[in-house]
Design a protein that fits this description.
The protein is mainly β. It has strands spanning 3-7, 10-13, 18-25, 33-39, 46-52, 57-60, 68-73, 78-83, 92-99, 117-118, 122-127.
Length: 128
């Protein structure tokens, strides 16, 4: 059974930082790309970043570069999202997800319908 444990969310003041963690089990980690997404109230789900450490590949959307950094610990089957200089507009539910379809060179590696397993989401609230 596929299972995700997401942690690290919460309430932070604007300008602050948070590190989200996503620990996965129940599937062959090394063959999957793990991505982070977010969805704010009334808005569409938005891709942030994805990684497959075994392939040595990561991708971060242009709008997130510079503030958000993805990393992974393969021994722990855990992917992290370091978020710095947070803004009120970063307030959203953040999800990790796994894809066996995304490959190096994909022009849209954060297309959400390529991800077949999803975590339950974790709330991040940034106060002004």
């Amino acid at each position: 059974e596929v299972h995700f444990v997401e942690s690290g969310g919460g309430l932070v003041q604007a300008g602050g930082s948070l590190r989200l963690s996503c620990t996965a089990s129940g599937f062959a980690w090394k063959y999957y790309v793990i991505g982070w997404f977010r969805q704010a109230p009334g808005k569409e789900r938005e891709g942030i970043s994805c990684i497959n450490e075994y392939l040595g590949n990561s991708y971060t959307s242009d709008s997130m570069k510079g503030r958000f950094t993805i990393s992974s610990d393969n021994a722990r089957s855990t992917v992290y999202l370091q978020m710095n200089s947070l803004r009120p507009e970063d307030t959203a539910v953040y999800y990790c997800a796994a894809s066996s379809s995304v490959t190096p060179g994909d022009i849209r590696p954060l297309q959400s319908d390529l991800y077949e397993y999803w975590g339950q989401g974790i709330q991040v609230t940034v106060s002004s």
